Known about the structure:
Blueprint: E1 2-8, H1 14-18, E2 30-36, H2 42-48, E3 54-57, H3 65-69, E4 76-79, H4 89-94, E5 98-100, H5 107-123, H6 125-133, E6 151-155, H7 159-170, E7 174-178, H8 184-188, E8 192-194, H9 197-203, E9 206-209, H10 223-226, E10 233-237, H11 246-255, E11 258-263, E12 282-284, H12 293-313, H13 327-350, E13 357-366, H14 374-385, H15 397-403, E14 407-413, E15 421-429, E16 433-441, E17 445-451, E18 454-458, E19 463-470, H16 475-485, E20 490-498, E21 503-510, H17 516-523, E22 528-535
Parallel strand pairs: 1-2, 1-3, 3-4, 4-5, 6-7, 6-9, 7-8, 9-10, 10-11, 11-12, 13-14
Antiparallel strand pairs: 13-15, 15-16, 16-17, 17-18, 19-21, 19-22, 20-21
Helix pairs in contact: 5-7, 13-14, 14-15
Amino acid sequence: MQKIKVLVSDPLAAEGLKLLSFGIDPDAKYQYELDVNTGLSEDEIIKIIGNYEALIIRSGTQVTAKVIAVANNLKVIGRAGVGVDNVDVQAASMKGIIVMNTPDGNTISAAEHTVSMMLSLSRNIPQANASLKNKEWNRKFFTGTEVYGKTLGVIGLGKIGFEVAKRAKAFEMNLIVYDPFTTKEHAAKIGAKLVSLDEVFSNSDYITLHLPRTKETENLIAKDTIAKMKDGVRIINVARGGIVNESDLTEALKSGKVKGAAIDVFDKEPSIDSPLFFAANAIVTPHLGASTEEAQINVAIDIVRQIRDFFENNAVKNAVNMASLSPEDLAEMKPFIELAEKIGLILCKIISSKGGIEEVEIRYAGDISGIKVAPITVSFLKGLLQGIEENVNFVNASFLAGQRGIKIKEVTVNKIEDLVNLISVTVKTDKEEMTVAGTVFFGNNMRIIKIENYNVDISPYGYILLSRNEDIPGVVGKLGSKLAEEGINIANMQVSRSDQAKEALMVTTIDQEITKEILTEIQNIPEIKEVKIVSL
C-alpha cells in the first residue's frame, strides 16, 4: 500500500490526528505516515517540506513562497480554521497545490461567544465578578438591562450572523438585518426584517457585526457612523479586527453615546494596548470566538477528513484556490473564467446599495456556449460574493449563493450578432435589475462592453471609478481636477450617455486606489449622483 507523508506543523486536536493513524480504515487506498513537528521556523520547514505530500497547519506556520518553491511533492495544504493569511495562496496555485480551509467548524462557537458577550454586556457580569472578588458588594453599581424586547441589528447574515439571529430570537428580541447580498425571504426565515445600513444604525439597541475585513468594511464603525446610532447603543464585534475603529469607539464609550461594547477582535493582534482596554464599559476578550474544545476538535476532524478525501477520492472541498483542470480545458476556459469573476466584482460594487439579490441570470452567447460553462458561473459567483463573504472560493461560491437564497439561471445561445462570444449577467434585486456584459476578443483580450444601460469599452484591470452623473458640461473637468489635487493619475477615461435619463456614466481607470475620504469628496461633487471604485 502506498504511503502518504503528512506534516502537521501546528498543534492539532488528537481527535483529528487519530483519523490519520495506520489501520484506521482497512479499505483505504493509502497509509498515512504522520509527522507532528510544531514550532518550526521558515528555514526549518524549507529543509524538510520536500518530503511531504500533505501539510496541515493552523495559524502559526507561515507557508511562504520560499517554502512552496521547494515543496516539490506537496499536493495539498490544509488549514484547520478559516483564515489563510499565513499561506501564500498565489504561490501554491502556481505550483498546483490545493489550499483548503474549514470554514464551518467554528460557526456555533463564534455565534455562542457573540451571544455570551451580549448578555455579559447587558448584565455587567465581568465587572461585577471583578468587584466581588475585590471584596466589594456593590449591587447598585451593576444594575443591568434585559435583552427581551430590545432591537438587535445584525450586520452580515452569513453563517455566523444567521446563527446569532436564531439565538437572539429565542430571547424574543426584535431582529433587523443589513446584508446587501441576501433577500427579504432569507431574513424572514429567522423572523428578521431586512433594512438599510442606516436603519440598522438608527434603530438598534444592540449592533452585532458579522463581516469579513475588506477595504469596504474597514472602519465601518467609526465616528461618523456612531453619530447615526441611538444614544445608549451597545456594540458587539466577534468578527474581524479593523471593522471597528477602536479609538473612535473608545471616545463614544467615554461620552456615553455608546452605552457599552463587547470586543473579541482587534486591528492588530496579539493586542495588549488597545484604548478599549481602559474603558470601564467595554468587555474585551483575546479573540476567543473559535476557542472552544468543540471548535478545535471540529476543525481538526474536518481538515483531516478533507485531506483523506482528497487522496482517496480525488475530492476537493473548501478549496480557497482553484482545483486543477486539464491543460486543454484550462487553456480554453481561463480567459472566460477571469472575465466572469471581474463581472462579478463590478456587480458586487454597483448593487451594494440596491437591495437584496433574488436572482442571477447568466447568458452565454456565441462560441462560449459550446464549452462547459459551470466553472465560469462559479467564477462569477466568487467575484460577486467577495465583498460580503469571508473566504469565498471556487468550491463554496455556489453553496454560499444558495444559502443566501440567490437563484442562479444559466442561458446558452449559439448565435450572436457582431461579437464572437458574450457573457451577459443580469442581477435582479427586490428593487431593480442591473446588467454587466463582457467579451473576449482574439488573443484573450477581455473587455467590459456594458454596465447597466450604458455601452462602454473598458479593459477590466486595475482600479476603476464608476460614477453616474448629470449629463451636463463641466463634470468631467471637476472629477479630473479632484483627482489631480490628490495626485492621482488618470490612465483612461470614457463617458457613456443615456438620453432617456439625461445621465452619463464616467468610467475612469486610475493608477492607484483611493481612500474613503477622497471617494466621499468625489461623491460630494453636486452633479455626481453615485460613485464606486472597483479593484480589478
